[in-house]
Design a protein that fits this description.
6 strands, alpha+beta, two-stranded antiparallel sheet, Topoisomerase I, Chain A, domain 4, 4 helices, Gyrase A, domain 2
Length: 184
């Protein structure tokens, strides 16, 4: 019973790490990477779909993304969606769409660093919330007399160790992202 709770908490914490990585993908580092546009939604026949479902996105060079729509009439719609996204990008439209990434100034790098720290803090909060939920489940088991107090203490210690491991992982990934952001 306790092992199931530990396994479940570990899986949920791992999902928090994956969500952190997706959040970090949105943070521009000055280099062109197709994942920057993952959050862009495009209106396609009345419904919003992710950009990568209506176009091919590749890094043309280190500072330019190339977006090639699958359907020619989607060029203007995709252009509009990229401009209206909160990424601050201005695409250049022809047959395909080129998205130049502006060089990051020191101030922009600091802003991106703050965004990355916010994403990391969100992941830590999610991990701590998972810990809180699992500990309340363990306490409920103790209250129902399904486990002993020793088992409850041992489980609490184990869950804290798992939490510490994932918080350290968040810190490590944040440090890597910050180093990547500050590298000119």
């Amino acid at each position: 019973m306790i092992n199931d709770l530990k396994k479940d908490s570990e899986q949920r914490m791992q999902k928090s790490i994956e969500a952190l990585e997706q959040g970090f993908a949105k943070v521009r580092t000055g280099r062109a990477h197709p994942s920057i546009l993952n959050s862009v939604m495009v209106s396609y026949y009345g419904s919003d779909v992710p950009l990568n479902q209506v176009a091919n996105v590749v890094a043309e060079d280190s500072r330019t993304l190339l977006v090639q729509p699958f359907e020619r009439q989607m060029v203007s719609t995709i252009d509009k969606a990229i401009r209206e996204s909160d990424l601050g990008l201005n695409p250049i439209t022809a047959d395909a769409i080129r998205v130049p990434l502006p060089a990051l100034t020191e101030e922009t790098r600091r802003d991106m660093q703050k965004v990355a720290r916010g994403e990391a803090e969100g992941a830590k909060v999610a991990i701590r919330n998972i810990r809180r939920d699992v500990l309340s489940d363990v306490k409920a088991l103790l209250k129902e007399k399904e486990i002993s107090e020793d088992d409850e203490r041992r489980a609490s210690d184990d869950i804290q160790k798992i939490t510490d491991k994932y918080v350290a992982e968040v810190d490590k990934r944040l440090a890597d992202k910050e180093a990547e952001l500050l590298k000119v």
